[in-house]
Amino acid sequence: MGDILFLAHRMPFPPNRGDKIRSHHLIKALARLGPVHVGTFAETQEDRDHCAELSTIAASSHVADRNKPLVLAGIQAVLSGKSVSLAAFHDCGLQYWVEQTLAANAIDTIVIFSGQMGQYLPDSFDGRVVIDLCDVDSAKFEAYAEAGIMAWINAREGRLLAAEEEWLARRSDVTTLISESEADLLRSRLAPETSAEIRAFGNGVDTHFFDPQADLPPSPFEQAGPNIVFTGQMDYAPNVAAVERFAHHVLPKLVAAHGAHFHIVGRAPTEAVRELGTLLNVTVWGAVPDMRPFLGAADAVVAPLSIARGVQNKVLEAMAMARPVVLTAEAATGIPARDGEHFLVARDDAAMIETLESLLEGRLDGGAIGANARQFVADEMSWEAIYEQVGELVRPSGKNSRAA
């Protein structure tokens, strides 16, 4: 049994945002199978501070600094005819390390996490290749373009990423995505003659950590409530749009009728997000050391996303904390839970207002929905259940080569 080379576009430690959570658990599952060599990028000093933790799992590692200015990546993308996403994650030092690692170790499997890292896959490698795209990123950029967000730039990015995704699907032994709907979407975008194995490989949640019965700090909220919470990376455009939508179009009626408070919790809030903190009963918390007290003290958690790809970790975490979650259909994608039993899907702003009012007024039993939600994720979407699938992806039937 040979070694595994794992390439990820973000440092898998600490697992404090959606993609890092997924790569964190993926590397832990791979390390159960054999020696893992990890090439990745650090974006912050916090990432760098976890290099020692990475070394306890990895047989060897190379952590490149991702400090290339976006303008430079854009210029390189135009000159090379590649997407900005690929140019932003191209690093000569990491490329050299990959070549040296393959030469020095008996690596029979390469696992690529996120399409940006496919550029490091050598044409000459004839072992098993697993590519975890997570989401169909090209579709996301196309949606941005259709919404008029930097239309020309995002249309170009979507077109080039679509070509890259097709190449990666053809190059790999198996390509995984975060949900069956994402897998179906990729299949529908491949040329008819493309021969590729596409599978859904779901996300999980750490139900031991996200546990309402755990010994948690007291509620961070000064007001008695009702308190409504949104969590997420707050420089991510769909999250920004979601909280702006909720603060301007949903919250005012809940404030007038119930004195509701809206709490935006998550790292790196943009200026637009910080400005929401000037609105009545809106608090922008920014980064917090532990999300659980905020979730545990929430009367409801909302995910009013208009653009969402894959499985939303924020939703799984709130469900694990036994909170009633009110979300859009987009945010519910990839979570095989039942509307009305495990969470509450609101089709538009008016429906979100009505659903939240029903919760706050007791016409919907938030406690029962939260308890059902916790039981569902514990049974169906724990990381331990997901780990069992990794061995089959990497080494099916105990065989290790492309010829298998």
Question: Can you give a write-up of this model?
Answer:
The chain is of the alpha/beta class and 404 residues long. The protein folds into two domains: 3-204 and 383-398, Rossmann fold (3-Layer(aba) Sandwich); 227-380, Rossmann fold, CATH 3.40.50. The chain has 18 helices and 13 strands. The chain has helices spanning 18-31, 45-49, 51-57, 70-80, 84-88, 92-104, 137-146, 151-171, 180-189, 237-249, 251-258, 271-276, 292-296, 313-320, 329-332, 349-360, 366-380, 383-394; strands spanning 3-8, 36-42, 60-65, 107-113, 128-134, 174-177, 198-200, 227-231, 261-265, 282-286, 300-303, 325-327, 344-345. The chain has a seven-stranded parallel β-sheet with strand order 3-2-1-4-5-6-7, sandwiched between helices. A six-stranded parallel β-sheet has the order 10-9-8-11-12-13, sandwiched between helices. The chain is globular. Mean pLDDT is 93; it is low at 398-404.
For the structure shown, list the relevant keywords.
glycosyltransferase activity, 6-stranded parallel β-sheet, Sugar_tfrase_PEP-CTERM_Stp1, alpha/beta, Rossmann fold, 404 residues, 7-stranded parallel β-sheet
The overall strand count is: 13
Cross-sheet strand order for the largest sheet: 3-2-1-4-5-6-7
Q: Major β-sheet, in short?
A: 7 strands, parallel
Radius of gyration: 22 Å
CATH architecture of the largest domain: 3-Layer(aba) Sandwich
